[in-house]
Every structure is written in structure tokens, then in C-alpha cells.
Amino acid sequence: MAYKPSPAQPPSALLRQVRPLRLLLNQAERLEHLQRLLESQLQPAAREHCHVASWRDGTLLLVVTDGHWATRLRYQQKRLLAALQAMEAFGNLRRILFKVQPPLVPTKRGLNTTELSANAAQSIRGSAEGITDEKLRAALERLANNASRKKSLQNKTS
Known about the structure:
Strand order of the largest sheet: 1-2-3
Strand content: 5-15%
Largest sheet: 3 strands, mixed
Structural class: alpha+beta
Order of helices and strands: HHEEHHEHH
Helix content: 40-55%
Distance between the termini: 70 Å
Number of domains: 2
CATH topology of the largest domain: GMP Synthetase, Chain A, domain 3
CATH class of the largest domain: Alpha Beta
CATH superfamily of the largest domain: DnaA, N-terminal domain
Radius of gyration: 29 Å
């Protein structure tokens, strides 16, 4: 007798039928609803830095991206607590805890696009000639050569 797999089902159907997945989906939807309610009470600049982590036993745990925003939100804690308690979903809210947790994906920082002019590269080369420390002289020469190389590459592509 051959094994006959069950017909494929859309993921949304699986999430609603399998009990552990259904419970997980319900919890995620609940947290998303609480997040929207929280964001309605936060200043627009703070919304991207503050997320609901859990809501249990009258305690709301908020994850904040850095200490700066955690401090700002702690100053507003009494106002935020009163505003959230007025909502039905947060009826038994007694306290708000803040936990600082940097984002999992580091923010992309701008690349250093500062380029040395040919004049600056020549000046660095001249300075390197008068330096007795071999490591420093080699570093300055590499810096000057790197600037020259970038300029020649730009000229070739132009």
C-alpha cells in the first residue's frame, strides 16, 4: 500500500486548524492589537522605537530600542499608564515596564564617502617623508596612495 500525502493547504488554513499554531497566531494577533493601541498614545517619533513584548498579570512589558527612548518614555510613564488604563483592552493595567533591547538587524550607517583631493594626498605624502616612525609613515603613504587610486579609477570610468 502506497503512502498518499494529504492535499496541500494554504498556510492560513493550517494556522487556524492546528491547535499550537492557532494559539500562537491568536497571541500574535493580540500583541499586534495591543501595539496599535499603544502607538495611538505614543508620540509619532517614539512609535518605531517602542514595541509590546508581553501583557500579563496587569503588567505591560515594552521593548525599547535604546536607553534614550527608554528614558523619554519613563518620563511619560504616568500619562501613558492613565491613557492606556482608559482603554478596555488595558482595563486591569497596573504597571508598565521598559526593557532596552537594540534591534536585531543593525541599522545601516552611511558609508564614509569623504574623499581626499589630489592636493591633500600630495600633502600627506610630503608629511610622510619627514616621519621617522616606520608604521606611521607606511600608514600615511597607504592613505595617500588609496586617494590616488580612487581618483584614477574615477577617471577611467568617466
